[in-house]
């Protein structure tokens, strides 16, 4: 006798959504449930007013939550039915999601679902272990299945990306508003907050990669944070760009879903990701990347993929705070 119910699928989807990655772990989403339909809404009170004025990173974060919801519903034995941006008069309503027809999840979906709570964002150096090329190829195919493109970049492009990230970080570090916004989401040691970046999850000093990829200064004017590297490795890992053909809100949702699908599959193989969005937050630098490295496609994420043995703390708000 089947024990699957739409109610259980909805509960699983809400639980899974809260584990999605988000910029500075702002968790910029809220939900409403009507019957067996979930409304995914952007929580604009959690938007980065300085670093993400257009809300692009907020919507990408919500896209990652949407992919978790889809995956959880499949694991509960239903095909998810999704309507994105269903009401032009309600711009904060990003998607409507509900369990559809009964359908057994395949093995790959179960693997992704098992990584939702285990996946962690990494903010320091990686070990010397190499990410297998065949896994990188599989991640490229994974992103394509969601309508995005994951582009592993060559050595010269890696140097350019590192330089642009460093340039953006230098400029942003001179802006007090940027710094205050970042520090707002940096949790001090012993904090009981359920959002933001825990002190043990970001480096006290700049990770020593070659070339150097600047990291957010979550420890600005403080001595918080952990060690910056692992085993003396200076490898940046596999540097990638995630792009979409367009740059509307629908494209940002696609980018978020593709990003999370890539992250979960990478996590299942012991691979973590470090994000570098500084250059994407500056119009001219993002346009340079679009035209010179992305063949006209819109870069939505810069990330390094690598292997780490850190087990960073993860904090999330409970579902009751999100409804």
From TrEMBL:
Region (Disordered) residue spans: 189-210
Sequence ranges assigned to domain Nitroreductase in this UniProt record: 6-34
Record Gene3D superfamilies: NADH Oxidase
Keyword Translocase belongs to the record: no
Pfam short name (any one): Nitroreductase
Keywords: Flavoprotein, FMN, Oxidoreductase
Keyword Flavoprotein (UniProt): yes
NCBIfam families xrefs: Rv3131_FMN_oxido
Name this polypeptide is given: Nitroreductase family protein
Annotated organism of origin: Actinomadura luzonensis
Classification lineage: Bacteria, Bacillati, Actinomycetota, Actinomycetes, Streptosporangiales
């Amino acid at each position: 006798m089947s024990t699957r119910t739409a109610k259980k699928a909805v509960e699983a989807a809400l639980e899974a959504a809260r584990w999605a990655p988000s910029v500075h772990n702002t968790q910029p989403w809220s939900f409403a449930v009507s019957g067996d339909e979930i409304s995914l809404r952007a929580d604009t009170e959690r938007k980065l007013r300085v670093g993400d004025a257009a809300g692009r990173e907020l919507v990408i974060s919500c896209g990652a939550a949407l992919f978790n919801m889809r995956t959880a519903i499949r694991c509960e034995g239903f095909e998810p039915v999704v309507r994105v941006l269903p009401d032009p008069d309600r711009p904060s309503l990003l998607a409507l999601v509900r369990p559809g027809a009964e359908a057994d999840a395949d093995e790959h979906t179960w693997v992704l679902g098992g990584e939702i709570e285990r996946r962690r964002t990494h903010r320091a150096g990686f070990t010397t272990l190499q990410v297998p090329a065949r896994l990188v190829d599989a991640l490229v195919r994974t992103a394509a299945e969601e309508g995005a493109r994951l582009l592993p970049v060559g050595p010269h492009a890696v140097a350019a990306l590192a330089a642009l990230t460093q340039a953006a970080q230098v400029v942003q570090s001179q802006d007090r508003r940027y710094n205050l916004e970042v520090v707002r989401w940096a949790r001090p040691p012993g904090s009981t907050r359920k959002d933001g970046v825990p002190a043990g999850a970001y480096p006290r000093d700049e990770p020593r990669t070659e070339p150097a990829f600047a990291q957010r200064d979550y420890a600005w004017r403080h001595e918080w944070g952990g060690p910056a590297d692992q085993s003396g490795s200076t490898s940046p890992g596999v540097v990638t760009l995630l792009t979409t053909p367009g740059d509307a809100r629908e494209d940002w949702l696609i980018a978020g879903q593709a990003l999370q699908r890539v992250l979960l599959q990478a996590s299942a193989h012991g691979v973590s990701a470090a994000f570098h969005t500084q250059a994407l937050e500056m119009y001219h630098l993002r346009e340079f990347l679009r035209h010179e490295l992305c063949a006209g496609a819109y870069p939505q994420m810069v990330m390094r993929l690598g292997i780490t043995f850190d087990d960073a703390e993860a904090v999330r708000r409970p579902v009751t705070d999100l409804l």
